[in-house]
Design goal:
Layout: H1 2-7, E1 16-22, H2 30-33, H3 53-63, E2 67-73, E3 77-85, E4 109-113, H4 117-129, E5 133-137, H5 140-149, E6 156-160, H6 168-178, E7 183-188, E8 207-209, H7 214-226
Parallel strand pairs: 4-5, 4-6, 6-7, 7-8
Antiparallel strand pairs: 1-3, 2-3
Helix pairs in contact: 5-6
Length: 227
C-alpha cells in the first residue's frame, strides 16, 4: 500500500503476493542487517560460506519486480518477507514445453565457473545432455588451473560474474590474454539495474540471468558459441 511504498525505496504501489519466513534463531544486530544483501558479506567462519546466498536472492527478487524486507531481534529470531507482483491476467493454459530434442545442441567444450553448487550441477547436467563436454570449476583460480591442464580447446567460458576470490570479469580478462578467441557468456543473479559495478552489463555482452530454464540455457549457450 501507499504507506509501505513511502517507507521502502524502489517499491511501486499495487497488488503483491507476500511470502514470509520466520526462524527462532539468534537474530541479527542492526549493523549486520544493513549489510546482509551485499555480495561476500558473511558472519560465518572463513571457508564456511561465500556470502552470496542472500545477495543472489535479492537480485532475483528485484529482477522479478519485487522487494524483500527483514526484521530481526537478537535472541528472538528473524523474519523475511518477500513481495512479488501479482499477475493480473488470468492464465487459461500454460504454453507447451519445448521438446528437448528440438533445443540447440553442440559438441564444443564449455568451462562452467559457478560457486553455487546447485546452479553449477544443474547447468552442467543440462549442457552434457545437449552434447557438450563440460568442465566444472567453483571459482576463478580453479578455472585457470583447469584451463592450463586442459589438453584440448575450450570453446566457451560460462562464468558467474560475482564470485569469491576472483570475479567473472577478472577471469575473462585472464582468458582473453591466453585464449583471445574464446567465447564468453556471463551468468548473473542481479537485475540489469543492480547497484553493483560487477553486475553492470553492456548491451552487447552475452548474459544469462538466474534463475534460468533448460530452454534458456541451451539457447544462450548456442548463441554465444555462434557469435
Amino acid at each position: 500500500d501507499e504507506d509501505y511504498v513511502r517507507h521502502h525505496i524502489g517499491v511501486e504501489p499495487g497488488w503483491y503476493v507476500m511470502l514470509s519466513v520466520t526462524d527462532t534463531g539468534s537474530g541479527m544486530s542492526a549493523e549486520v542487517r544493513e549489510h546482509i544483501f551485499e555480495p561476500f558479506f558473511t558472519t560465518k567462519e572463513k571457508g564456511k560460506g561465500t556470502g552470496l546466498g542472500l545477495s543472489t536472492v535479492y537480485g532475483i527478487i528485484k529482477q522479478s519486480g519485487g522487494s524483500i524486507w527483514v526484521y530481526s531481534e537478537i535472541g528472538r529470531g528473524t523474519t523475511f518477507k518477500i513481495y512479488l507482483p501479482r499477475v493480473e491476467e488470468e492464465v487459461d493454459s500454460f504454453p507447451p514445453r519445448e521438446d528437448r530434442e528440438s533445443l540447440p545442441r553442440g559438441n564444443e567444450t564449455v568451462l562452467l565457473v559457478e560457486d553455487d553448487a546447485s546452479v553449477r550441477n544443474l547447468g552442467a547436467r543440462i549442457l552434457r545432455n545437449q552434447g557438450y563436454t563440460v568442465l566444472e570449476a567453483t571459482h576463478g583460480h580453479e578455472a585457470i588451473r583447469m584451463a592450463r591442464d586442459c589438453a584440448g580447446k575450450i570453446h566457451l567460458l560460462l562464468t558467474d560474474v560475482v564470485m569469491p576470490q576472483m570475479g567473472g570479469r577478472e577471469l575473462v580478462r585472464w582468458f582473453k590474454t591466453i585464449h583471445p578467441d574464446i567465447k564468453v557468456l556471463f551468468i548473473s543473479g542481479y537485475p540489469d539495474n543492480a547497484d553493483n559495478r560487477q553486475a553492470t552489463f553492456k548491451p552487447e555482452e552475452p548474459l544469462l540471468q538466474k534463475p534460468f530454464s533448460l530452454t534458456t540455457l541451451a539457447k544462450k549457450v548456442r548463441e554465444a558459441l555462434d557469435r
